[in-house]
Amino acid sequence: MSGADASHRNHVNTLFRDHYQWLCTRLRRQSNDASSAEDIAAETFAQLLEAPGLTAIREPRALLTTIAQRLLYERWRRGDLERRHLQQLQQSDLDHAPSPEDLADLSQSLKHLDRTLQRLPGKVRSTFLLARIDGLTYPQIAAELGISQRSVSLYMTRSQALCNRHSANQTLISSQNKRSA
């Protein structure tokens, strides 16, 4: 481990000690859920740990708020997507409605996909969600995240590859489950 890594960890540790409770309180007001606020605050600091070359921050609370807001928006988007999907299922013809087993499989698959996406770095995950859920174009995503269009393209390739692996794994698991049933 290099001295820079230890220095970076110590810097984030100091930020955590100084601002974690403040960030949790702020997020609780927005989400009305203490455990959700704590999860988002912890993920905020985890993203800071992953940030290479983090230099001295003049306004740490502004940075923490920005990261936490993006995470909160991602969580809201995921919830909106789940609600829309459930509404579509409820509106579909009852003869074609999925069985409870199919719904359980779909729910489990969505949870696995969410865990898979959580393995991606913050900007890669945000790029994927902005494209797939919000339907933004690459130039819009680049402007939203303050990155180049080339980075958007690379991030989408990376996230799509992860999703393809996830899909292949789910297909394999599903076929194994059907054979054992």
TrEMBL record:
Please provide, alphabetically and separated by semicolons, the GO molecular function terms listed in this UniProt record.
DNA binding; sigma factor activity
> Which GO terms fall under biological process for this protein?
DNA-templated transcription initiation
Domain RNA polymerase sigma-70 region, first and last residues per copy: 15-79
Pfam families linked = Sigma70_r2 (PF04542), Sigma70_r4_2 (PF08281)
Keywords for the protein's UniProt record, in alphabetical order:
Sigma factor, Transcription, Transcription regulation
Q: Which positions fall inside the RNA polymerase sigma factor 70 region 4 type domain? A: 113-158
UniProt cross-references to NCBIfam families, sorted A to Z: sigma70-ECF (TIGR02937)
Q: What's this protein's family per the entry?
A: Belongs to the sigma-70 factor family. ECF subfamily.
PANTHER family linked to this entry: RNA POLYMERASE ECF-TYPE SIGMA FACTO, RNA POLYMERASE SIGMA FACTOR FECI-RELATED
- Protein name according to UniProt: RNA polymerase subunit sigma
Could you tell me which species this protein originates from?
A: Pseudomonas kribbensis
